[in-house]
Structures are given as C-alpha cells and as structure tokens.
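so i finally got all the pieces together for this one. its two components total, 788 residues if u count the protein bits. some of the lines might not be protein, just check the labels. i wanna see the whole assembly predicted at once instead of chain by chain like last time, that was a mess tbh
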Amino acid sequence: MAFLRNKLRPFRAAHVGLAGLVVLAACLGCGQSYGQSYGQTKNTCLDCHSTLPDPLGVSQEKFSQDIHAQKGLTCASCHGGDATSDDADKAMSRKAGWKGKIDRKQIPQLCGSCHSDPAYIRQFNPSLRTDQLDQYRTSVHGKRFAAGDTKVAVCTDCHSVHDLRAPSDLHSTVNPVNVAKTCSRCHADPGYMKGYSIPTDQFAKYSASVHHTALAVRGDLSAPTCSTCHGNHGAAPPGVDKVQNVCSNCHAFQAQMYEKSTHKKAFEAASLPGCVVCHSNHGIRHPTDAMVGAGPDAVCMRCHNPGDACDQARAGLLSNLRRLDEANKRADSILRVAESSGMEVSEARLGQDQARDSLTKARVTIHSFRTDLVDADIQAGLKIAAQNLQAGKDAMVERNYRRLGFGISVIAIGIVLAGLRLYIKKIEN
Amino acid sequence: MFAAVRRWLDERFDLDDLTAPLRHKTVPSHRLSYWYFLGGITLFLFVIQVLTGILLLLYYRPGANEAFESVQYIMTRVRFGWLVRSIHSWSANLMIFTAFAHMFSVLFLKAYRKPRELTWVSGVLLLFLVMGFGFSGYLLPWNTLAFFATKVGTEITGQIPIVGKPMMVFLRGGGDVTGATLTRFFGFHVAVLPGIATLLLLVHLLLVQRLGMSIPPKLEVQWTADPSAQREMKFFPNFLLRELMAWYVALGVLGALAAVFPWNLGVKADPFVSAPAGIKPEWYFLFMFQTLKLIPSKVLFIDGEVLGVIAFGLVGLLWLLLPFFESDQPSHMKRWITGFSVFALAYVAGMSVYGLLAK
C-alpha cells in the first residue's frame, strides 16, 4: 500500500547539517524558538496549514513539539506528497503519493509501518520497543477494531497527533501522570461508552484512590496508573484469576503470603478476584487496621459470621495490631518530649524505626491469614517499643534530676551572692 | 592555722611586698563602674572554657570516624558529661558575647585613649582569637551543620586575593573539608589558639594592671576641675568581691542554660549528602555572612565576594588601629570615630538579626 512507502529514511549527515543551519538561521532571524528543531527538513505544508482553522490547522509551534518533527520527519512522512515543494498542487498531488486525511481504519497500520520495524526505529531510539502493533492486536481495543468497531481507541487517540510527545515528557498524554486522564476521555464518558457493557466510574474511583494520591499528589512515578495494571498497547482487563499477579508486581511480600494462604484456595473456588475482594480495584483506599475490625470499613465480616472461629482470630489480630501501634505511639511521644528537652535519645529514636517496621511487617503478614506469624511480628515490635519507652522514661528522669540539681545550684548561688553583698556592706561600713 | 601558714610564707617570700600592688590598687567609682565587670566576666568564662575543655579532652577523639561518636558518648554515658559539654558550648557563646560587649563598652567610654592604645590592640586581637576558637571548636563534634558551616567558612577564606587559596588548603588540610580538616582544627583549638591567647591575655592583664582603669572623658574633666568629687574603691577586696558576684551570676546563667537547654549534638556529618537548605554560620559570624550574601556577584569588574572579604579585612585592620586615630584635642576625627563606633554597633546588631531572620 502507498502509505507503507512513505517511511522516511534518516537524512544523510550533510543534509541534516544543512537543514540544521537553515533552521538555526531561521530561529535567530525571527527570534523564536520552537524547541528542539534539529534535523528538521523543509516542510512547506505548514506555510498554509499554520494559517488554517481546525481541523486542517497545525501551528508551527504545535508541530515543533512533536517528537517526529524533532527527529526530522515532516507532514509528508504520514500524509505523503512533497513537503519540499512550494507549489500546493505539486505538494498535494496524488502522483507524489499524497493521501490527504488519514483514514481512521488505517492509523494503527500506518504507525506500525515505522514502529514495527526494529531496523528503522533503532536509528532514532535503539531501546524503543517495536511490538506495539502486535500488542494492540491482542488488546480489547485492537480486537474490536479488527472486528470493525472504529469507536475504540487507535494510536492517535491516546498519543495525540501533530504534537505527539515522548512519554517521558510531562506534557505527553501518555506520561504516567496523564495516562488516567487520557483513558478517562472515553472511559468516563457514559455517552461515548454507551453500548459497551462496562462501567464508566473507574476514573472517579481511581482519582480517590491511594494509587492516584501517590502518583499525582506525591509525584511517585512508580505508583500505578491504568496502563500499569491493564497494559498499554495490549490493554485488557487482567481477569479474575490473574489479579494477584498484577498486584504482586509491586506488592510482592503480600502476594507471597497470600499465595500460601487458605484464602487463595477459597477465593479461587468461589471465582472471587483475589486482592480485589478486600481492597477493590480502581478505588483502592489506604489500608487501615479498621479493615480487620468489625466496623463499617471491615472486610472480613462481609463473608464471615460474627462469633465464628475466624471472627475470633480477626479480633485477636486487630487487638494485637492496636497494642503495638499504641506501644509505638507511647514510646514516640516520650522520646519526642525528651528530645525537645535537649536529652540525647537518638539511639532510641532510631530503634523506634525498627518497632514501626515490625508493625508494618505484621500488617503485611496478615495476608497469610495466620495468627501465629502475625503474633511473632507483633511480639518482636512490642519488645523493641518497650525498650525504647524505658529509654525515654530514663531520659525524663535524668532531665528532672538535672533540673532539680540546677534548682539547688541556684539556691546555693543566691545564698553566696547574698552573703557577698552583706560582707561588702559590712567592710564598707 | 591560716595565720601560721601566712607567717611561714611571709618569712620566705615577703608576701606583704608581693601583695602591695594589690592592696594599693584602686578602681574609679562612678555610675558607669559596672561596665568594668565585663572584662572580668569574659576572663571568668575563658577559665571555664579551659577547665571544661580539659575535661572534654579526656574522652573526645578527633577523627571523622570517631569525633561524633565520642561526643555522643560524652553526652550519654559519661557521668555529668552532658553538663560539661553543654557548659563548654554555652560558655563559648557567652564569652564571645561578653567579649563583644566589653569591646563596645571600652569604645563608647573611650577607654582606648592614650596611654591605653596597646591595651585596645591586645584586646581586639584577643577578640579575633576568641572568634577563631569558636570557628575551630564548632567543627569538632563533626555534625552536619558544623561540617557545612566549616565548608562555607573556609571557602570564604579562599576568596582572599593571592594568599586565599593556599590559606584555604592549609586550613582544610587539602582541597576539601575532610577528617584532615577536623584534626587540624582540633590542633588549632586545643594547642595553637590557647597558647597564643594565654600570652596575649597576660599582656592584656599586665597592661590593665600597669595603666589602671580608664575614667570616661566627661567625668575626668569634672574630677580634674573638682578633685573632691573624685570617688574610688579598693581593688582588693571591694572591687574583687563585686566582680566575684558578677561571676556567680554568670555561673548561674550558665547552669540554667546547660540544664534547661542542653547543647544539641545534631546529626553526624555526611560529606556525600547535599548541604541542608538555609545553612548559616554561628551568630557571631552572621553579620559578615549576611553582608557577603547581599553584595552583588560582580561590582564593576571585581568579584563581589572578593570585594567583601577585602572590605572586612580593611575594616578589621582599621578597627585594630582605631586608638591611633584619636587625639587628646577636640577634633573632627574624634566625632568621626564616635559616629563610626555607633554605626559599627548598629551594623553588627542589625545584620546579625537580619541574617537570623533571612531564609
């Protein structure tokens, strides 16, 4: 097909250098900078299209932000034609391979003509993968697209067009920080999603989740967004029996515990989706000890009956977790007061990190659903917290001892001063 | 018993003759006499520094791998180690404060006039030494703040034209602040500076003893016109007992600070982490630090920091030689010195407060 022949060959060094000089001269001349315009060749299309209204308009500034433009590709690389010709008829002649607006049905194939070619892509970015089109074909989007559904996402829907940026660019629609918003453009639109039997509240739920807070608020780029769990080009639901495989990519210890637990077998037998049963999927909240409680946030009692053996084990777990949490708070509190009083308690403060780690470890061990293992972590933490609490108490006793000593010294100094004053008076009289 | 010992000593050393200057020495008595106590308080704090410093030496180990831990050991394990270390640190700061106060009181009471020019010179040199004590001692616990403050401080030394760079390398014991710097600073702090300070202190005390206490100029004129108005007290025991009271008050203040606000140890220095934000030197260097911060990076063709360092050097030299610009006769220069003194005090105080509050 014609569009497959439009692949741009990398320019020879001389051409790149010459083009670079032209662009540099242009930039210096007009006093404007359009980002990294190295390697850009003559692109007469923009002479007209930068002045046209949407949907035909593409501004110089917008196109200069496009990663393809920055790598030296022109409009003709995708649309065909002759971008070097100043004559509009010649530039947009069918003879020169001009295709005009790209048919939506041809977009994945057009992008794949370059991005599925390792030899070609290596010239620009040797580490860039070239299996996007293959992955896309396995995705729900790709399968429905192949079946003739053109409403589903194609490359340009997610990556944008004419100002397509590298995913590492913060302004890119597929930068981790922006992925959820990009997906939500379709998936949170009930009108657009009408006819598909999936909910449209995923984005709202995700926006209130601990993962979103970590990614968007704390700026932790390792926190998950849509594509982390669903895949990007091969996007699909993980599947009920594969959920823990997805979560375990980050929550490895919890997954190891869960793998050996009785709950895994029970959930599989009941076709329940592992982690999601207790933690939900898109709207995952920060886990608290209340999850193993008996209140409104409790998850155990959704399946178990009050008073049964599991309920009793749950109550024991909660009680132990709270005991360690309170022991840690007591130790932290007294150490804080001692430190603010100028006492040297840095060793005990450091030791409190271990006590807090024990609590965190116990919370992770809960995924084994074994009270003996959780108890072992709790006891280890309680022992450390007790030692640190004692260190804090000792420091406070020492602080009070110092202040008492100071009080006695002040009285002694006062007596000496009064004595000296009286003596001076006596000898001067 | 006491009389017997005294008689025994008197027979051999003629104690009466030896203590005659003490018995005959008098101190002018007027409404500004209390300013005379500042020098004595500074001396008392210096003695405290020497004593607590010797006690700290019993446990302190100079070296990048041991210094912090040894100070931590002193504060947590050694009996009353916390008290000794806190008193040493607080006493150092109080001593610098009283030394500054003593200098400005001498300045405003014009006690530096003829024949006391050299007393002033030795006093100003002692003040510089005391600041050197502060700078070198600050690094010894090897904590983060001290490490980076020393880095900045020695970098400023490196800005001095021609000799700056070699001086910086000499102070640091290499190109950067390392364990070698700590060892050097320890040497300066416990051997070089105390030796010079003791000699200068003896000269200073000898000059004070030889020349007596200065009387403020206005009072001197009044007393010359009306000798019957002249008041004085015996140095021993009247003045010394009052001085003793001042020392006791200083001891009480030191005890209060050490007991209620023990000196913080901070976090061990890590040369591989970046400097904490908003790092500042100790308060007595703040006015210089803030001034250097305010000078533009380039003034005409001269580097701003270099200009600042040169200016401070010249002002320091001028300060040292201040008495030699003063004359016995009323003159324009006299008023100029008074104005300069007022400006200097306002500048040091203002810039220190500004530096403290600035982010």
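The interface with chain A takes residues 72, 75-76, 82-83, 86, 237-238, 241-242, 244-245, 248-249, 251-252, 255-256, 258-265 of chain B (CB under 8 Å).
Strands of chain B lie at 26-28, 232-234, 298-299, 302-303.
anyway lmk what u think
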